From TrEMBL:
Source organism of this protein record: Noviherbaspirillum sedimenti
Taxonomy, superkingdom: Bacteria
Lineage: Bacteria, Pseudomonadati, Pseudomonadota, Betaproteobacteria, Burkholderiales
One cellular-component annotation, GO: cytosol
Family, similarity comment: Belongs to the LysR transcriptional regulatory family.
Domain HTH lysR-type: 12-69
Protein name, UniProt field: LysR family transcriptional regulator
Length: 311
């Protein structure tokens, strides 16, 4: 590479970073330039400067537009992080001046919502009413991507699903027990000696193959001498899971026990008395290694540790 880090930083400008992001979003030099109120020739010059800095092309021209190559993807990802961090800095300064309290973006797996996330959110809201909080509920893998891109301050989930776990700091919080559930209108089943084999005629609602809960169900099926059903419905959405179970008398699923308890109390699900043999999954706090966290994120993390940390 032509530039040392100091030389690169001395030449890098915010407009260049914004152009990279705009090109990634619009796939067109003309549209990207228009979005940034630049002429197309000026935008082309900025891109040429960037490619000269990194001593490599960053985009490929195709019928569908300008597509970032592997170098471009890397530079764009870091450009988004820099722009997000600078935006957060400006927002933090404005919030401090106005007394609004700042912003906190949290990603969480479904199983951590009822008894881990919600109590802390309520506590923070009463003590910091001007703190703006965004909560994203999704799979760990998808949320780690949002964390990488700077859209989340922290994730409550699993770092083990990442392709490169070395990028993250992981602090385990608690185990995640799992229950077998059916819709509330499902006919009653015997409480004694109930096992997965009694559900052989049911249709299963399962998690996608890349998720730990899918692997857990496969192990349980194998232990019971069963195979995964071919007519399964696959979803990672808690809303879809609950909605389908409520409307069916022959579909069964796995849910984190804390979530299942919540919906069972509201008479939306029934928890079947089936004891699973697999070891419980553990989830924890995931942050970017080497990344600075905001005061609000630090406080949230400390509250998580104090109330939930695995010993």
């Amino acid at each position: 590479m032509k530039q040392t880090i100091n030389a690169l930083l001395s030449r890098l400008r915010m407009k260049q970073l914004q152009l990279l992001i705009a090109l990634d979003e619009h796939k067109s030099m003309h549209k990207a330039a228009s979005a940034l109120s630049m002429t197309q020739s000026a935008a082309s010059k900025v891109l040429h400067e960037l490619e000269d800095m990194f001593d490599t092309p960053l985009f490929e021209r195709s019928k569908t537009g300008m597509i970032p190559n592997q170098f471009g993807h890397s530079v764009i990802r870091h450009a988004r992080l820099l722009v997000t961090d600078l935006g957060a800095l400006c927002q933090d300064i404005a919030d401090i001046r106005s007394g609004k309290g700042g912003r906190l973006a949290i990603g969480t797996i479904m199983g951590a919502v009822p008894d881990v996330v919600v109590p802390i959110l309520n506590w923070l809201h009463t003590r910091q009413p001007n703190l703006a909080i965004e909560v994203v509920e999704d799979t760990s893998r998808r949320m780690l991507t949002l964390l990488d891109d700077g859209h989340l301050d922290l994730v409550i989930g699993r770092a083990s699903v990442a392709l490169d776990t070395g990028k993250y700091l992981y602090q385990p919080l608690r185990d995640e027990p799992v229950s077998v559930v059916v819709g509330y209108s499902h006919p009653a089943m015997p409480d004694e000696n109930l096992s997965l084999r009694h559900l052989k005629d049911h249709r299963w609602l399962v998690y996608p193959k890349h998720m730990p809960m899918h692997t857990l169900l496969e192990r349980e099926m194998d232990s019971a001498g069963m195979t995964m059903p071919s007519n399964q419905i696959s979803t990672a959405s808690s809303f879809v899971t609950i909605a389908i179970l409520q409307r069916s008398n022959d579909i069964v699923a796995l849910l984190p026990t804390d979530v299942a308890d919540f919906f069972a109390r509201h008479k939306m699900l029934r928890i079947l008395p089936i004891e699973l043999t697999s070891k419980y999954q553990t989830f924890g706090i995931v942050t970017r290694k080497g990344g600075a966290t905001s005061p609000a994120a630090d406080q949230f993390i400390q509250l998580l540790r104090d109330r939930n940390m695995v010993h």
